[in-house]
Amino acid sequence: MLKGPSSRAVFAGLTGLLTYLVGGMAIGHLSVGLLTVLVPAAIVVGAVPVAGAGLIAVLCFGAGLSAARGLEGGMLLVPLFLVCLMIAPPAWGAPVDRDTTSYLLWNMVIWGVGGLWAVLVFPPLLRKRMKPVHREPHSRARHDRLHPWSSPCCAP
């Protein structure tokens, strides 16, 4: 069982590492940046169910957009770990109000450093094993074959 916010920085490192492996360096940095910025928002809106559902809806929309580039495997970790923060924010030992500025900033720093550490340390170690990742959009041929009714509706 994970105890405290610093041990949850492992989640941020895991997110950074897996998005680096799936999408490359730029996507790894993007996911760490998103996670760092959205950690305080996820902790605060977790207290209000409607606001939490709205944030997750926006994140799922972003994950759907990333799926068009073939990055759904890595980018889906960002909403997943933010949901964990909404449901059970990290405890500091003593009961802490989840709306205090110091609590939110420390969580943001801990998650940001944990994710950035993984994105900066692991790429040089994995350089010999990794091949460059070049993502291209999915072809429309598969989409037309799977959903012929949606092509006239979604065509630009």
Protein model, in words:
The protein has one domain. Helix content is 69%, strand content 0%. Helix 1 packs antiparallel against helix 2 and helix 2 packs antiparallel against helix 6. The longest helix is centred in the last third of the chain and has 26 residues.
Summarize the topology.
Layout: H1 9-23, H2 25-45, H3 49-67, H4 72-75, H5 77-87, H6 101-126, H7 140-146, H8 150-154
Feature tags:
156 residues; 0% strand; flat
* Biggest sheet features: none
Model regions low in confidence, pLDDT < 50 over at least 5 residues? none
Q: Strand content of the residues, in percent?
A: under 5%
Helix and strand pattern: HHHHHHHH
Tally of individual domains: 1
Q: C-alpha Rg, in Å?
A: 18 Å
Principal-axes shape call: flat
Give the termini distance in whole angstroms. Answer: 49 Å
**Overall mean pLDDT score?**
76
SS-based class: mainly alpha
The number of E-state strands comes to: 0
By DSSP (H or I, 4+ residues per run), the number of helices equals 8
Task: Compose a concise summary of this entry.
The chain contains 8 helices and no strands. The chain has about 160 residues and is mainly α.
